[in-house]
Specification:
The chain has nine helices and seven strands. The protein is α/β, with parallel strands linked by helices. Strand 4, helix 4 and strand 5 form a beta-alpha-beta unit. The chain has a seven-stranded parallel beta sheet with strand order 3-2-1-4-5-6-7, sandwiched between helices. The chain has one domain: Rossmann fold. Helices cover 48% and strands 15% of the residues.
Length: 248
Amino acid sequence: MKLNGKVAVISGAASGIGRAAAETLARAGAHAILADVNAADGEAAAAALRAAGLGADFRRVDLTDPASIAAFGREALALHGRVDIVANVAGWGRTEPFVKNTPDFWRKMIDLNLLGTIHLTRVFLDPMIERRAGKIVTVASDAGRVGSLGESVYSGTKGGVIAFTKGLAREMARFDINVNCVCPGPTDTPLMAAVPDKLKEAFANATPMRRLAKPSEIADAILFFASDRASFVTGQVLSVSGGLTMAG
């Protein structure tokens, strides 16, 4: 699957699935524009790609701030004149009983996981509609498909991303813009590193393949949706979870 000549924006690209997605899309031939609130790690990730002879830039963006997203959109479009692929990977959560959550905790997840995805997608849609071409890939979670213990609001935000993806896919189909969603199961990321070992072990044991996903395995699904191999695929949700969830 080649992306030669394409320009791809990847949010959450400083670490975890986002960084793996940036590497995968760049190795497939795209020029990757890495976006993250963590400037130090984001710059380092982009520099590593350039050192490997791949095309990459980094621009800082705070996905909880619409003004920051708008400014990022202008910069990204100015870099190469267009953006062909938007991979909405950035997200955040923490395992905690719902009754112990605070409204600030809810707001942070909603602003980043759901509204951040919506805002970032919106800033790139008009040029895609004009060109009648583009690929939007959202990253939700299997928590949004089936729920997750101790992640009620997180599950809600990711369920919202799934529904947003499907609705937008219907609206954008007439412009030949594909909109699809990848739903990772438990994945070996820096966020997962903060989870107690006992819980990580429980996740692995509950997975038929008996392990956590690698970020690169999620990135491969993103690459498929970003490529021409998915030219007649839109509004779809692909679970990458080692068989953890098999519900329709």
